[in-house]
Write a structure and sequence with these properties.
The structure is a homodimer of 334-residue chains. Chain A is built from nine helices and 16 strands. By secondary structure, the first copy, chain A, is of the alpha/beta class. The first copy, chain A, folds into two domains: 9-173, 3-Layer(aba) Sandwich (Peroxisomal Thiolase, Chain A, domain 1), CATH 3.40.47; 179-333, Peroxisomal Thiolase, Chain A, domain 1 (3-Layer(aba) Sandwich), CATH 3.40.47. In chain A, the strands form four sheets. In chain A, strands 1-9-16-13-10-11 form a six-stranded mixed β-sheet, sandwiched between helices. A six-stranded mixed β-sheet of chain A has the order 3-2-8-6-4-5, sandwiched between helices. In chain A, β4, α2 and β5 (101-103) form a beta-alpha-beta unit. In chain A, α5 packs across α6 (235-248). Chain A is globular and about 50 Å long. Chains A and B meet through α2, β5, α3 and α9 of A and α2, β5, α3 and α9 of B.
C-alpha cells in the first residue's frame, strides 16, 4: 500500500458484465435508455417496501446469472450492502442464492467498498468471479432515516431523493477483459459537524474532497488523467461547492467532474431536490450509463467515488453529527 | 478458490498482536485473567449506552496502537463492525482515527469477516498492517433487537446475554510471526425458519453446520486436524445439538468443540441463559484466551467460526424469519 491507495497491479481485475434494475421514477429520468430493466411500480405486490427492495435486489443478481447462463456455483462470492438497519435487504436477498456472502456497510459508499473488496480478492488470486451488488429504495430509506411517508413532510431545499433500484457488477480474474479496475483509494471517516439529515451533500463533501486529494497525491496524477471524476451522491449544491473549493487549492475538475445524484434525475422536472442519493445511486449510474459508454470508448479513464453519510436514526435522536466517507476506484479501458 | 474456501498460501498473514476490553460482567467470568482490560462500569460517564460502546471501541483501537508504540500512519486500514443499526459504533469510533476504514456487517460473524478481508488484503500484498475490530454492548443490543431494558422483561430459557466489550486483532504481512491465518471458508446465508429473536442459537446452528462441513470437505481434513473447533455464540443448547447432529453424519467433534458464548460466562452463576452472544463475543474470547494459549502452544490449530443471526427489528416486526451465517477461519501455530 502506498499510503491510502492500493494498486491492482496484476492487471487481472476485469468487469465481465453489469446489470441494473431502476425504479419507475429513475426510469423516467435522463438515463432511462441505459438501464437494463425498469420497474412499473416499486411495491411489486409485496406487503412492505422492505420486502419489495429485497425482491429487487434478488432480481438484479438473478438477472446477472441468467443473462450469462450461469448458476450459483459459477460465482465465488457476493459482496453486497444496502441502507437498511442490519443490511437486511442484502442478507435476506442472499437467502435465495447458494453463494458465499459478505455484507458490507459504508452507507452510500458501500458500492465502492464492494468493488474494492471484490477486486482485492481477485487480484490476490483468492477468487475468480464475484458479484458486487447494492440496492436502495426511496420508501424504505425515507421512513428509516427521516419521516414516515404518510406524514407527507415538506422536503427541504437541500434534501435529496433516495434512488430506488439495484445493480450488480460482475468482476472476473481475466486479463482479456477490456475494462479493468486498476487501483483504489480507501477513505477515512471525516466529520465536519453537519447535523441535518436532510443535507447529506454537506455531510459527505469533506470526505469526498479528502479522498480525491489523497488519491491524486498517492498516484502522482493530475485530475486530467481522468476523462471523468464521478462522485456518488453529493447532489448539485455540494458538487458545485466541491469544484469551487478544490479550485481554490489549485485542483481544477470543473470540466471533468460529474455526480451520479445529478445525472440520474432531471432536477428541473422530477422534484428531487439536489438530486439522487442512496446505495443504488452510484451503482445504477455506473453499471448502466458509465459502463456502456466505457465499452463505446467515450470514457476511457473514470474515477468512481461513491460517498456515504454514516448516520442512523438513533444517532440523530442522540444529537450526533453525521460523519462522511468516500472511497475512490479507478476504472480504465485498457 | 476451491469451492468456498480461500487459502492464504503465501504464508505471510500473521497475528502481530491482540487486545481486549471486557465489560464488568465479562470481567467476572471464567476468562477474567486473560482479558487485557476490564471495565468497572459499562456506561463510562456517557449520556447513552451507544456512546459508551463507541468509547469502548475507540479505547480498544487506541490501546492497540499505544501498546505497540504506533500511530495512525502505521496502520493501512481498520476493518470493523458492530451490531447497531448502520454500524454507528464502528463508524463513529473511526472519526477518532486518521486511518482508512471499511465497515462490515454479518451480525455476530462480523469479526470473522474482518479477519478474512484483512487477511486477503495482506495475502495479496495490498496492505502491510491492518486492525480488525468489533464491539458489542448488552444494553445497546437488547434495546435495539428485543425490549427496552426499563421494562425488565423476563428472559426466556433459550436467550443469550450480549457480551459488552471490544477487541482488536492486528494482522501483519510478516512470515516470521508464529501464529498465522492460513485459510478461510466463507459462509452462505441459511434460513431454517426460526422466528424467535430470543433463540439465536437455533437460528445460527444450520449455518454453523453447513460452514463446518464445507470447510472439512474443501480442505480434505478430518475434524481431528484441529485442537479446537470454536463456534462464535451458539450457546450451550445449540452447541450440544450441533455435536449430536454432526455425530449422526459421522463427524465427531465431541472432544474438540467449544463455543465462545459458553466459555465467556459462568452459566451457573451469572444468569446468562445459554451463554454469551454478540459481535464482541468471539472477538474477546479469541483475542484473549485463545491467542494467549496459542502463544503458549496449548492450542496449535484452531478453527474459529463466528456465527451471525441476520435479523433486524423491522424484519422481526414484519414477521420475517431469522437467517444465519457462519464464516470459518483457520489459525495455526507455524
Amino acid at each position: 500500500m502506498i499510503n491510502q491507495t492500493i494498486f491492482f497491479s496484476n492487471n487481472n481485475v476485469g468487469i465481465a458484465d453489469t446489470t441494473t434494475i431502476a425504479g419507475p421514477k429513475e426510469g423516467e429520468g435522463p438515463l432511462k435508455k441505459y438501464f437494463h430493466n425498469i420497474l412499473d411500480d416499486d411495491l411489486l405486490n409485496q406487503k412492505s417496501y422492505e420486502k419489495a427492495e429485497t425482491k429487487i435486489h434478488v432480481a438484479a443478481i438473478r438477472h446477472m446469472l441468467n443473462k450469462n447462463g450461469m448458476t450459483a456455483k459459477d460465482i465465488d462470492c457476493v459482496f453486497a450492502g444496502d441502507l437498511l438497519d442490519e443490511i437486511i435487504v442484502s442478507s435476506y436477498a442472499m437467502r435465495e442464492f447458494d453463494i458465499p456472502f459478505m455484507g458490507l456497510f459504508n452507507a452510500c459508499a458501500s458500492f465502492a467498498e464492494a468493488l474494492i473488496v471484490g477486486s482485492s480478492m481477485i487480484h490476490g488470486g483468492l477468487m475468480n468471479r464475484v458479484i458486487c451488488s447494492t440496492s436502495s429504495h426511496f420508501s424504505t430509506a425515507e421512513r428509516q432515516f427521516r419521516f414516515p411517508l404518510e406524514l407527507g413532510t415538506q422536503r427541504t431545499p437541500l434534501s435529496q431523493w433516495t434512488v430506488t433500484g439495484a445493480g450488480c457488477t460482475m468482476l472476473e480474474n481475466n486479463p482479456e477483459l477490456p475494462i479493468k479496475l486498476t487501483c483504489a483509494t480507501i477513505g477515512k471517516v471525516i466529520d465536519y459537524g453537519v447535523k441535518d439529515a436532510n443535507d447529506m451533500g454537506a455531510a459527505m463533501l469533506p470526505a469526498a474532497m479528502d479522498t480525491l486529494k489523497t488519491h491524486l497525491k498517492d498516484t502522482h496524477r493530475n485530475p486530467d488523467y481522468y476523462d471523468l471524476i464521478l462522485t456518488g451522491d453529493l447532489g448539485d449544491a455540494a458538487s458545485r461547492l466541491m469544484k469551487k473549493l478544490l479550485k481554490k487549492e489549485g485542483i481544477d475538475i470543473e470540466e471533468i467532474h460529474d455526480d451520479c445524484g445529478v445525472l440520474i434525475f432531471n432536477r428541473e422536472g422530477q422534484n428531487v431536490g439536489q438530486g439522487g442519493s442512496g446505495t443504488a445511486c452510484s451503482n445504477l449510474v455506473f453499471n448502466s450509463y458509465i459502463y456502456k459508454e466505457m465499452l463505446n470508448k467515450r470514457f476511457k479513464k473514470v474515477l468512481l467515488m461513491p460517498t456515504g453519510a454514516l448516520m442512523s436514526k438513533t444517532a440523530s435522536l442522540q444529537r450526533e453529527t453525521i460523519p462522511g466517507i468516500a472511497h475512490a476506484i479507478c476504472v480504465e479501458v485498457v
